[in-house]
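This part of the workshop introduces the protein records we will be handling. Getting from the letters to the tokens is the skill we practise here. An example says more than a description, so a record of this kind follows:
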Amino acid sequence: MSPQGSQGPRVRQLRLVVEAEDYDAALTFFRDVLGMPEELAYRGDDDERVAILDAGRATLELANPLHRRVVDQLETGSGEGPAIRLALEVDDAATVTADLLRAGAAGIAPPTPTPWRSLNARVAGPAGLTVTVFQELETTAERRRREGSGTDPGPGDPAQA
């Protein structure tokens, strides 16, 4: 069971920290092309720089190796992919993918429908990040009614035996 006090969850924000060798290219890609608003930026001595960009609602998607391979196969036609990638929900996966390609991202896979009713595309972005842009084609409530969806009670749950 997760520790939650009377105030709710203990974690208030997920912040993924990425070192970008070409900081300006990464900032342009995520802030200007993807439109992630800059919440805060800092400049220090010797051109030390950081920008905190708003990515909307953050979630941590934990996948076992088999699921990662299944998603890689669906999105790219290959079961090979990175253990960590960014997945960003967008309103129009085809348009955003085209914008990212025009901005210099390398295409890995075009927008592809998935069995769980999303449209996923994959690009190689700056800072060595593989980025999936996905467009939901149904609501979370609709998805939860599908076979195999819902919540995972975890090991030790009698339903898992």
Q: What stands out?
A: The longest helix spans residues 65-76. The beta strands are 4-5, 8-9, 38-43, 49-53, 86-89, 106-113, 118-124, 130-136.
